[in-house]
Amino acid sequence: MEKNKRAKRANYLETIAFLIFAILCINFILNYRAHFVDGHSMNPTFQNGDRLLIHKSKKVERYDIVTFEPKDEPGESYVKRVIGLPGDRIVVKNDRLYLVEHLDKNVDLSRWIDAGVLPDSTVVVRIAQESILHLLSNVEEIPKDHYFVLGDNRSNSKDSRSIGFVSNDQIEGVVTFRFYPFNRFGFVH
């Protein structure tokens, strides 16, 4: 009788352990995916051939590293760092884009730029492509559900300076973990 109770209890525990394992596996499959780094645009953060884990449902925040599918290259996947969030103010002057986070809409950012007085945390990037300069010159803030992304290796990166804003629909997920190579194994910040 006592043996029978222990066997039933062990059976219940095995079933519960299996269910927990199955739930964790399903959660992992639904919320994560692997990504292979192809190129040098994120050097030194990521090297060509690194393998990353992407969290598909994590909310995108400033300076997160994301993967996305570029509009002009279906099937491809880029890895870039989020520099500008929806609502950030931008001004294009000559071939430079000035990006300022959390600036009141009543402030004339253009006058500040002309005076050489830039708010703290202003990001200044050079935009080389005429089509993107034209596209961004009429925009005063990053639109809702869009992001301005840059590669960490600025001199060798196809990013928002050449492809424009990245929409929320294009983003595959936020990079959270590098699982290969093993000597750089760990969480990504």
What does this structure look like?
- By secondary structure, this protein is α+β, with helices and mostly antiparallel strands.
- Strand 5 and strand 6 form a beta hairpin.
- It is built from four helices and eleven strands, in the order H-E-E-E-E-E-E-H-E-H-E-H-E-E-E.
- The strands form two sheets. Strands 1, 2, 3, 4, 8, 9, 10 and 11 form an eight-stranded antiparallel β-sheet that branches.
The gist of it:
The protein is of the alpha+beta class and 189 residues long. The chain starts with a helix and ends with a strand.
Give the arrangement of secondary structure elements.
Blueprint: H1 2-31, E1 32-36, E2 51-55, E3 65-68, E4 78-84, E5 89-93, E6 96-100, H2 109-115, E7 123-126, H3 130-137, E8 146-150, H4 160-163, E9 166-167, E10 171-180, E11 186-187
Antiparallel strand pairs: 1-2, 2-10, 3-4, 3-10, 4-8, 5-6, 6-7, 8-9, 10-11
